[in-house]
Amino acid sequence: MRLSFLFLSLVFLVHCNEAKSELPLLIQGSLDVSERDWEQDGSFSLKGDAEFYWKKFVSHSDFIPSGKGKPAAIEEKDIIYKYIPAVWNGTEINGEKIPGHGYGSYRLKIKFSPGLKKKMAFRISDQAHAYRLFVDGVLVVESGTVGESFETMRPDARPRIYSFETQNAEMELIFHVSNFHHRVGGLRYDIRLGTEEKILFEIQKSFLIEAFLYGGFFIISLYHFAIYFFRRKSPAPLYFGIFCIAVLFYSIITGERLFYYYFPESIGWENRYRLEFILICMISVFFLSFFTELYKDVNTKYLPIAQSINVLNCGFAFFTLFSEPVVFTEYLVFMDVLRIATGIYIISNLVYFISQKREGSVLFLLGILFIFACAINDMLTGRSVINTPRLAKYGLTVMILLQAIMIAKVFTRDFLMAERLSLNLSKTNRAYSRFVPREFLNLLEKKTILDINLGDHVQREMTILFSDIRSFTSLSEKMSPSENFHFLNSYLNKIAPVIETNKGFIDKYLGDAIMGLFPEHADNALEASISIQREIYSYNRSREQSGKSPLKVGIGLHTGNLILGTIGHVERMEGTVISDSVNLASRIEGLTKYYGSNILISEDTFHALKDPKKYNVRLLDNVMVHGKETSTFVIEVLDGYPEELQNRFLENRKDFEIGHLLYKEKAFHASIEFFKKVIESNPYDSACAFYLKRAEFYDKFGAPPEWDGIEVFNDK
């Protein structure tokens, strides 16, 4: 807000400084500046009554009597005085009011102090017509082509500078002006006189201010385009960006008309005027569109009024595009009415929004009131009702600055809100991650749980881990419900981190059982299994010290292709894994009950290991589990036992393997000797005890005729 007031103060300070020296007035075509201090007072505008000659192109010689006693061609009785700067429309000559189309001459004399020797300059604003300037009978400036008809004249739109050095105490200025292309005619706009240094300084200062405004318009337009590009929820930023671009081009072709200094012949006078008024219409259209979109949630009742104003503005823009200036300038009052209607519509709505305590309405209203006042000033100046500097570009700048302040305020508020929402979302995501593993989202290539849709899935090879507490039912019967939950959570708090440390994640908790997935390598799953068993043995020591029975956990691993995705319906879904590999991993874990093993893996998992020799294993059996039509080799992992017990397994591994081979070859009696030898050395070898029992049974009663060494397990 302070920036806007600082800018306004600068603008008015500039204009006040210019107005301080605007004291001399033309009186009956004569201007006396002989007492003026040019260094201190600076430049000033030529204002007052100049001699005016309608439908005459007078010359310097017309005012000099002939040497033969004849009077001058122009006598005092022929002189009419006309105030400048102003339009000549409606000036009464011989009882008739003259029209805007026509031609004529202005004459004035300037009296300098005798002996003044200074570099002086005239700064002539664009008059929107064609004119010639003669100084003491010499043509010094020509803008466009002066003519006595529409066909013979050509207007121009460039401001002009004429520098000169004072020679005489009196200077005569004659302007030839013709207008057949605009609704109004005459010397309409400012003509300033001052030292060349002051005039050039004023131009440079004005150029710098306008260049600053152009840069501001351009940057803010890019900013709003970027907002729209990255957030297309509302077209309001797009409308405001186009509005800024329209203001930028309008400022370039008006004011100091920088465009014409660098590209004087690029577009004709007619096209420049068309573009100026089309841009005025577009400025109104896009600003009103921005306003209605900004407040669309509370502005629906009177929206048809805004739409009608925009349609009329667009209609006038098309009318301007396809008609000549001599035609469309006759209807500029219609455009003025539309601008006033736009201002009234916006102001009345903002007053209502303020009563509803709508955020930003007060600041918006201040900007609109200022720009509305500037627009009224420019309309009256353009119609030569008043003669003040054009302020539209400053009003638009203030409006854009206020809009930037409002955006900064909204952005800050939204940023703080986004921080709070981000913190809440982070907490929510952490809460959801307790139910939906982060790895599950990563595998589905989703950033957050919000991105997951029903039916999302991915197919890839993974290693599946199943673990289960042996005899948990009998164990849980000895505990209360709360003790059950406390026990399970205590147990799982020890197991889950081991899986996560080895690059796996828990897909499901199944009571006392766990289903874990390892997307990368089978080694990760096996290392996790070994670590779990070691953790269980450590946990059992503390349980035994507390007088509690130790736990025994069986783990089964299988590696294969699976489909991981979401199932359910739109209101309730969950992540799951669909694959025969999951079934086989579960069955292998179930086999640990029969063989009394800690860790069993499938042959697929064994072959997927990077270095199988790294682990201590033994071939346990060739089995066919429920739901499978083919058999699979099951391998027992001997790592994970306490060191002393593991050494016993390793010392007897060869005898076990010989006994196992004899058993498969139906040499049951011979295999019994090896199995007994192993049991005597290691009574904890439950798998060997399992084989010994079966070998003794087959040795006594004989194996079934169709027996091929494959053990069939029909339990689920």
From TrEMBL:
Gene3D superfamilies: Nucleotide cyclase. GO terms for biological process: cAMP biosynthetic process; intracellular signal transduction. One of its GO terms (molecular function) is adenylate cyclase activity. InterPro entries: 7TMR_DISM_rcpt_extracell_dom1, A/G_cyclase, Adenylyl/Guanylyl_Cyclase_3/4, Nucleotide_cyclase, TPR_rpt. Residues 463-589 form the Guanylate cyclase domain. The chain crosses the membrane at residues 211-230, 237-253, 273-295, 302-322, 337-355, 362-380. TPR repeats lie at residues 652-685. Keywords: Membrane, TPR repeat, Transmembrane, Transmembrane helix. This is Adenylate/guanylate cyclase domain-containing protein. It comes from Leptospira idonii.
